[in-house]
């Protein structure tokens, strides 16, 4: 099992990033909550990781904090909640917001996340109530936000990332139209779009 990666961020294409660790490029899938805290491409960062082994692939997931990884690991234990849905949950709500949803039995907030129907949301509330008490404490984020140059393809990268998170193309177009034109970076575009989805 790969517990963590420490290296240079070689590329960021949400929800995928490439970490250069001693000359080896690791492809890592990460929730948007982690992307928001990552420094610029070319900067060193540390990610807590979880390896999912399937018949057709080995997929490495990365997280900015131990709490995010712990929540991910608990989520994938829930029936009908696989890594993709767990990633979408962590992209749609913070660990703290997920705690609040469970404590308040807030089904409505969970069903706004792509891939989460009412039955799955209700199952999450029931099964996660006790599991949340065992989550690891907070650790420093993967890195502080830098000020990278905005790539010209930020809009298309945001579009692709939202599709990867489970949103339908027409819905992605609608969400991106709500983003202020002054917002330039891919991560900020996705952040604003997800906020719009949560308040819809």
Descriptive account of the structure:
The protein has 200 residues and is an alpha+beta fold. It has three domains: 4-63, OB fold (Dihydrolipoamide Acetyltransferase, E2P); 67-134, Orthogonal Bundle (DNA polymerase, domain 1); 154-199, Orthogonal Bundle (Helicase, Ruva Protein, domain 3), CATH 1.10.8.10. It is 44% helix and 19% strand. The chain has helices at residues 32-35, 66-75, 83-92, 95-104, 107-111, 118-131, 154-164, 169-177, 186-199; strands at 4-13, 16-21, 24-29, 44-53, 58-63. A five-stranded antiparallel sheet has the order 3-2-1-4-5, with helices on one face. The longest helix has 14 residues, at 118-131. The protein starts with a strand and ends with a helix. Mean pLDDT is 84; it is low at 136-152.
Q: What is the arithmetic mean of pLDDT? A: 84
- CATH class category label of the largest domain: Mainly Alpha
The helix tally amounts to 9
Q: What letter string, H or E per element, gives the SSE order?
A: EEEHEEHHHHHHHH
Which percent range fits the helix content? 40-55%
Oligomer: single chain
Q: Could you say what the CATH topology of the largest domain is called? A: DNA polymerase, domain 1
CA-based gyration radius: 16 Å
Strand content: 15-25%
Q: Total domains, how many?
A: 3
Strand segment tally: 5
